[in-house]
Each structure stands twice: as structure tokens, then as C-alpha cells.
């Protein structure tokens, strides 16, 4: 159960040293309770207090990291059932399955799809995250050779899958430095797989027949000192798998039932042979409530919608996606090119910049920081008004880049044109179209 600020304060050193970046220990405690600070910021907290606070402040669903480096995947850490209550913390990883029995050509083709199926949306790179490497051969030597081949091709995180604990042991030792997810420990193999996970420091996937059996399995792993656990509750029908996801999330969050307080892995590939139905099932589990989704293959027509759905669901609703403030050069502008302004809501920026690019007209676009709000919303909130835009444009450095003094403002803030001319003496304020789709025609008729 989460501690209150006062309860946390009682465990802090109460020196008010300020080394945490906050003036007092009480203020730091309140920040900890609100999730706005990390305990590691306090350099003098006692080990006893650190242990108590770490345990008490752990989220109901423990976070698990798979892999190393920049491409490491973090899942779990969730604190709410529904996104609107606060936010979802860590987006589910999407994994591509490759089997050691596949021909080399197919393995290479899948690796190529994994690397190349990448998309850009609102300034973010969207792609799959993990490779699920399965030992269909059940041959340790073949599995190790297969892992080495894939390992030399990518630094993305792995899930190692086998029915045999011995094969998994050989596979893990071939890439232990990558910290792969060992899949899976069952009631029959939990002792051997648990020992392997503890020896290598790798996260472990636990597989059971149902949530009740899963709880017993995770308790046994936890007793062995293993906390990096990912759960597969075993259901392979859509209805039962969905029910299990909801039961597990509710038990962990609402009942504070720690044995089910770990992220989950789901296998849509084992629930249908229809690729499009598999994508539909995967979309359901992005929303409810998988930590890892393993797909039979990657196809652009189904992967892209899944990546966009994941982005939309796991974007913090309290913090809109924003673009960095500054002057953006589009189509190689010169000193006579038009100069426009817009807000830094990412969707607004990419729509506006996309239309400018389509126009083929070299242009300057100044993106003003509006805390991620759209033009209309930021204007209504007083964040995109003349008294703010005028000084920002003067400081932007645009006067050193263009000869003319003409500013094109969005049609939605036409009412600010007069005030802007007062804020920017010598400038001509031009009202552009209200809809970005009309920008190409407008720019083609613009003259310096």
C-alpha cells in the first residue's frame, strides 16, 4: 500500500540539507508520495529506511526490464485500471517470433522485416521491440547456433522459448549478457529455471494453466529471490485470455494481491491462424492489459495500426505530445521565403509542416511553446496571444534570416492581428487559412 507524505517523512533523515533538490525533507516526502521524485535523490537516507520505502512505494504491478542498452524494454509498473484515472506507464512490447527450424532464408526475411518495418508519427519512431526466439527443434546445440546468428544481426531484446529447461539453459548462457526473458518456468521446471534466472540475472517468464496456479508459481519464484517475473496465465482462447488479463490486473491493483502483481505476456499467434484476426486480438491486448504481445510475423498492414494504437493508448493524457520550440526550415527557405507561426502541439506541427512540404514552397515555420496545446486551445487559454507571440518572435532570431517583415498567423487567431502589429512595429501581419489543408494554395500565391 502506498505511504502518505507524512509516513514517508517519518522515515527520512529530517536534516533539510537540500541535497535532493528540494528545500525540506517534508517537501521531498510530499513529492515522493505524489510520484514526482525518486528516493535515490536523497543521498543520506538510511539503508533501513530505503528498504522500507522501496517496498512500500513499489507499484502494484512490478516493473520488469528485458534486455540492455538503449533498446531495453521496460514493462509493468502500472498503477491504474483505466487510462483516464491517471495514465498507463509502460507500453507493451511487440515481439516477432522466429523458430530455429525455419529455413535460413525465412529467418533472414523475418529479421529484415523486424529491422525495416519502422514508421514515423508525430516525431516518434514506431517499431516492434523484441524477438521471440523459439527452439522448435528442442536441440540445445541447434538453438545456441540459431541464437548466435540472430545475436550478430541485432541488439534488440530476446525472449528465449523452449519446452526443455536444458535447452533454455544452453540458450540463456549463449546470450546471458543480453538479459533475455527466459520462457518459461512451469510447475515442473520452476526450480531449474528459477536457479538459472538467479544465476544469470535474467528475467523469467512463468507459465501456468490459470491465474490461481500462476500465483503459486510466482510465490515460489519470489521465495527464491526472483522479482523480475512475466506471467503467462496459459489461456489460448480469446475469451478466457481476456478474462484472465482483467482478473490479474484487478487482483494486483484493487486487491493488492502481490502474487499476481507482475506484467503479463500473451500469445495471439496461438489463438488463430488468420493474420488479420491475430492483429485484432493483439489490439485488444494492447488495451487490456498485456506487457508483451508475441506475433507470428510482422506485416506492415497490420503492424502499423497496432503501433499507432499503442501510441495513442500509452500517451499520457495529462501531457500532450509536444514539439520543441524553434524555427524550422522547410523546403530549403531563403531570405525571401514566407514566415509562419504555429503551436507546439505535435499533431498540429506535423499537419502544418506536412502541408508546407506538399506545397513545395520554401518556408520558415516558427513553433511556439504552448505546453503542447493546439492553436485554438492555447489561444483560448491565453498562451498564444499577441503579448506572448510578439516578444517570442523578436527573440527567435528570424529577423536575421529574412529580409521582409511579414508574419503569417493561423486563421483561428485572426483577432490577434491588430495587437500583433502593435507588438511588432514595422511588421505586416497576414492572416493565413484556418485549415492547414488550404496552406499549399495560399503559399503558392504568397509574395514577399
Q: What does this molecule look like?
A:
This protein has helices spanning 5-11, 25-33, 47-57, 104-116, 140-151, 165-174, 190-200, 211-223, 238-253, 275-287, 300-314, 346-359, 375-380, 386-396, 417-423, 439-444; strands at residues 64-66, 73-75, 93-99, 118-121, 124-127, 130-134, 158-161, 181-185, 204-207, 229-232, 265-266, 292-295, 326-330, 339-343, 363-368, 406-409, 428-431. It is built from 16 helices and 17 strands. The protein is an alpha/beta fold and 448 residues long. Helix 8 links the parallel strand 9 (204-207) and strand 10. Helix 6 runs parallel beside helix 7 (190-200) and helix 10 packs parallel to helix 11 (300-314). The protein has three domains: 5-57, Orthogonal Bundle (3-methyladenine DNA Glycosylase II, Chain A, domain 3); 64-314, Dihydropteroate synthase-like (TIM Barrel, Alpha-Beta Barrel), CATH 3.20.20.20; 326-444, Rossmann fold. The strands form five sheets. Strands 10-9-8-7-6-3-12-11 form an eight-stranded parallel β-sheet. The mean pLDDT is 93.
What is shown here, in short?
This protein has 448 residues and is of the alpha/beta class.
Give the N-to-C terminal Cα separation.
64 Å
Question: How large is the radius of gyration?
Answer: 27 Å
How many strands, what sense, and barrel or not for the largest sheet?
Answer: 8 strands, parallel
Number of separate domains: 3
CATH topology of the largest domain: TIM Barrel
CATH architecture of the largest domain: Alpha-Beta Barrel
Got a strand count? 17
User: Which stretches are poorly predicted, pLDDT < 50 over at least 5 residues?
Assistant: none
